[in-house]
Specification:
The protein has helices at 12-23, 55-63, 77-84, 96-104, 142-152, 210-219, 242-245; strands spanning 29-32, 39-41, 67-71, 88-93, 109-111, 123-128, 153-164, 188-195, 198-199, 203-206, 222-229, 234-241. It is α/β, with parallel strands linked by helices. The chain is globular and about 50 Å long. The chain starts with 11 loop residues before the first helix and ends with a helix.
Length: 248
């Protein structure tokens, strides 16, 4: 996995966040995928307050403890909510424009890729929300993800991460699943962002069911706990290094 960050000229989501914050409005942020029709992300939703967040996000923020790393922080809404709760958070994102906005909003924000090994700080909670498993990219990247997380976690630290099981997209009326087992994992999508005619680079984005996440966690020396389930196949999980759990 690479440890690259974006430049401002190829940062569609960051540009939308920047416009909304500094200009009070933003154009349409479009999401392209080879698997689905084009979709739009409502930019104001990226600035939501704690009260407007889904239940799983609220639970994750309440569960977060100690020194917190907010991964893929965007506009910084989670870090701001944590600060309002009296908690300490460091926000990281690969988007330079998003980081500029977060800094202007008073967030301790850094333009850093999660996989950049020069980033060596330790955290009690690593927070990965808004389908946090997406950053993993593919199932093949799971070992690299868990290795990196182990490097970032303080003793007895944990990851709070959310995702969704996309099986509902393949369900027939009788409850059977129309999934080609010879094809790629059904939760693997490709996305490309577009804003004001500027398209970013395509990227892989992983939605993973809890059982699959738990399997890869065990394979890589972690345990996965199901913290809460949402109303539509979504869930919040806690990941802990088994070597730390065994010492409890």
């Amino acid at each position: 996995m690479n440890n690259e960050v974006l430049n401002a000229g190829a940062d569609p989501m960051g540009a939308a966040i920047y416009d909304y914050h500094f200009n009070g409005d933003a154009d349409t942020l479009i999401v392209h995928s080879s698997m689905f029709e084009d979709d739009e992300i409502p930019v104001p939703d990226l600035f939501r307050s704690f009260e407007d967040m889904p239940d799983l996000e609220q639970i994750a923020l309440e569960e977060a403890r100690g020194r917190i790393l907010d991964v893929g922080a965007g506009s910084g809404c989670h870090s701001i909510a944590l600060s309002e709760m009296g908690k300490e958070a460091v926000a990281v994102d690969i988007s330079p424009l998003s980081v500029e906005v977060m800094c202007d909003r008073g967030v301790d924000a850094r333009q850093i890729n999660l996989y950049d090994e020069s980033f060596t700080e330790k955290f009690d909670t690593v927070l990965m929300l808004m389908n946090g498993t997406g950053i993993i990219g593919t199932l093949e990247n799971m070992p690299a993800f868990f290795r990196r997380i182990r490097e970032l976690l303080a003793p007895d630290g944990c990851v709070l991460i959310d995702s969704s099981d996309l099986r509902y997209l393949f369900e027939e009326e009788d409850g059977s699943l129309m999934i080609d087992l010879a094809d790629d994992y059904y939760g693997l999508l490709d996305y490309q962002m577009e804003y004001k005619g500027v398209k970013g680079e395509p990227f892989d984005w992983l939605y993973v069911d809890f059982d699959t996440l738990a399997f890869y966690a065990e394979e890589n020396g972690f345990c996965a706990e199901l913290v809460a389930e949402g109303e539509h196949y979504d869930y919040l999980a806690r990941l802990k290094d088994v070597s730390c759990v065994d010492r409890d």
